[in-house]
Amino acid sequence: MSSSIFRKKRISDLLAIQPKDKALKKELGALDLTMLGIGAIIGTGIFVLTGTGALTAGPGVILSFIIAGLACLFAALSYAEFASTVPVSGSVYTYTYTTLGELIAFIIGWDLVLEYLLAVSAVSVGWSGYFQSLLSGFGLHLPAALTSAPGTIEGHTTFFNLPAFLIVMIITYLLSIGIKESKKVNNIMVIVKVAVVLLFIAVAVRYVKPANWDPFMPFGFDGVFAAAALVFFAFIGFDAIASAAEETKNPKRDLPIGILSSLFICTLLYVFVSAIMTGVVPFMQFEGVAHPISLPLQVAGQTWVAGIIDLGAIIGMTTVMLVMLYGQTRVMFSMSRDGLMPPFLSEVHKKHHTPYKATWLFGWIAALMGALIPLDELAKLVNIGTLSAFILISIAVIVLRIKQPDLPRAFRCPAVPIIPGLAILFCGFLILQLGASTWIRFAIWLAIGVVIYFAYSRKRSKLNESK
User: Fold this and answer.
1) Is the Cβ–Cβ distance between 229 and 344 less than 8 Å?
2) Is the sign of the CA dihedral 128, 129, 130, 132 positive or negative?
3) What range defines the domain where residue 268 resides?
4) CA-based diameter of the chain, in Å?
5) 2 near 99, Cβ under 8 Å?
6) Does residue 396 belong to any structural domain of this protein?
7) Does residue 180 sit within a domain?
8) Residue 6 belongs to a domain
9) 104, 66, 87, 101: which is closest to 15 by C-alpha?
10) How far is 132 from 52, CA to CA, in rounded Å?
């Protein structure tokens, strides 16, 4: 059995032309991929978690973002090498299949289901809150029963988060009709939200008081590290770019550019925003604040900009959900095409050339989760799932360098195994900052995946059929 569960796909097979009914349409260039990455990264992290991170680390949250960004950078270099070498849909699932074997590939694919689906659901809840806040500014209010998941608002009877459900359904429709249409919407929204962030920096920087940065680390390095594990969520998304490999016009050149440039741009924005926030407002004042980016502007008397920021948050979260759901469907598409998941998940629409059945299935699941389940604690599972994926991609790039040193690589991760080793160390350290309850839930999720693999996937694998 051990040989069968660790069987590997050959890279030459992965690069072989897929049948027309299983092929995706190539529509994306380097700029589109960069915008896709920014669309995924800038959202809940910058508009919500900056305040929570400030409470945990004080002004030292600036260092927290840098630490989390470095962990992502080291992993991103490994992603860039694999994405340019094996430009096939599936991201780290596909890369692991070629190096570490089928069982581990399945587990990481199952792990990505947790990351992407839960991220879409969690962000949809945050989107709903900002949207309702925007409506209230015009004197409009939804019935309380339709504003939140059951039992989440004390003193009110709630049944269903309607805005969260509807926004995911709209995004699902966009993705189902084609990546070309989706990328246009994403690119426009990314331009708007980056402009909003730059507006915040330009206006708020004039009100910075350096005295608010003293003490810089009121809770010491423990607070900085704890905040780094939390704000890591703010960087999740750049790995979804790798899922677009099969729909990229020139993947060997464009994928590394998209991955690294989007991560670099977003890290700079996070550092500037967190520095300005804590410079304008003492970090203790972010306690209980749901709109931390708006608070410094309100304190500075720039309420007109605060309103624009709220609109930018809505747009920002929309692009995050779009890219995360996109990544989810492409990973499941690849697993289905390999026989590890039911075949209907890799059926491609004849007109739109999208995995439409997978898109609608996971869109419905994500929408219902966001509408019905409180996700405060479960959101931590997104972090542990992503960190695990980053560790595996870093191991995989080392293994492939050893086993296939002469394989043509359009982009080479520098200083292997040092850089991937640093990714493993950084991500492993951040995982250890997460609580025991998160570990237990993650273990349960992985156990369910192992059962599915041995009960269904192992026997139906395309590699098993080819024996």
Assistant:
1) no
2) positive
3) 29-461
4) 70
5) no
6) yes
7) yes
8) no
9) 87
10) 21
* Packing angle of the helix pair 379-403, 102-137 (nearest 10 deg): 140
**Residue 282: both structure tokens together:** 């003492």
Total residue count of the chain as it appears in this document: 467
Chain centroid to CA 397 = 21
Of the candidates 322, 385, 375, the residue with the CA atom closest to the CA atom of residue 112: 385
Could you tell me the CA-to-CA distances from 336 to 22, 104, 407 in Å, in that order?
10, 16, 27
**Cα→Cα distances 445→193, 428, 440, Å:** 34, 19, 9
Average pLDDT per 10 consecutive residues for the chain, totaling 467 residues: 76 62 68 84 77 90 93 89 76 83 90 84 82 79 84 74 94 83 76 90 94 94 90 78 75 85 91 94 82 83 81 84 85 90 89 86 92 67 83 90 87 92 93 84 92 94 75
Q: What per-residue confidence (pLDDT) applies to 132?
A: 82
Total structural domains in the chain? 1
pTM of the model: 0.80
Can you tell me the distance from the alpha carbon of 351 to that of 361, in angstroms, rounded to the nearest whole number? Answer: 19
* CATH code, 167: 1.20.1740.10
**Which amino acid would we find at residue 410?**
A
Which of 418-436 are b and which e, b meaning 16 or more Cβ less than 10 Å from the residue's Cβ? ebbebbbebbeebbebbee
In a domain, 288, yes or no: yes
What confidence score (pLDDT) does residue 141 get?
A: 85
Q: What is the 3 state secondary structure string of the chain? A: CHHHHCCCCCHHHHCCCCCHHHCCCCCECHHHHHHHHHHHHCCHHHHHHHHHHHHHHHHHHHHHHHHHHHHHHHHHHHHHHHHHHCCCCCCHHHHHHHHCCHHHHHHHHHHHHHHHHHHHHHHHHHHHHHHHHHHHHCCCCCCHHHECCCCCCCCCCCCCEHHHHHHHHHHHHHHHHCHHHHHHHHHHHHHHHHHHHHHHHHHHHHHCCHHHHCCCCCCHHHHHHHHHHHHHHHHCCHHHHHHHHHHECCHHHHHHHHHHHHHHHHHHHHHHHHHHHHHHCCHHHHCCCCCCCHHHHHHCCCHHHHHHHHHHHHHHHHHHHHHHHHHHHHHHHHHHHCCCCCHHHHCCCCCCCCCHHHHHHHHHHHHHHHHHCCCCCCHHHHHHHHHHHHHHHHHHHHHHHHHCCCCCCCCCCCCCCHHHHHHHHHHHHHHHCCCHHHHHHHHHHHHHHHHHHHHHHHHHCHHHHCC
- What does the block give as tokens for 182? 């989706």
CA distance 349 to 315: 28
The predicted pLDDT at position 108 comes to: 86
Angle between helix 418-432 and 379-403 (nearest 10): 160
- At 408, the amino acid letter reads P
